[in-house]
Amino acid sequence: MRPQTIGRVLGIGLRVAGRFAGQQLAGSLQSAASAPQATAVGNPADRARAAGQTVRQASGGVAQGVGGFLRPFRRVGGILWLEVTGVFFLLPVIVFAPNLWRMRASWAHGADHRRFLVTALVVVVFLYLGVTSFWRARRK
Questions:
Q1: Containing domain of residue 70, as a range?
Q2: I want to staple 61 with a disulfide (CB 3.0 to 4.6 A). Which of 21, 36, 82, 101 is the partner?
């Protein structure tokens, strides 16, 4: 993503989240102001319920705003996660490939036949996992 696009997305997301939270708070204040005073002075359970509802609405608006702010980072974080896991999957390949090369003479009927097959299986599996992890990161 270009820096101009990231800045624009973050700025727009922050403005929309602020506007949404402001509208939610203004709406809850207007509904609380239009409510009869007998309820506010009366039952404490009703006051607690109304306060809880106001907090729930405000926190929902803040959660939406934060989610909108973090949305561009989700894609970048996913790509970074795939690339890091790809590197960690390729580490066993780097470690076991020299052993595989040293045991190549006994691939069919040698003293290290079983160890060669296990090492080959480990190298193939981790090579597949590492390459596909990078491939999925490039497709994102």
A1: 3-139
A2: 21
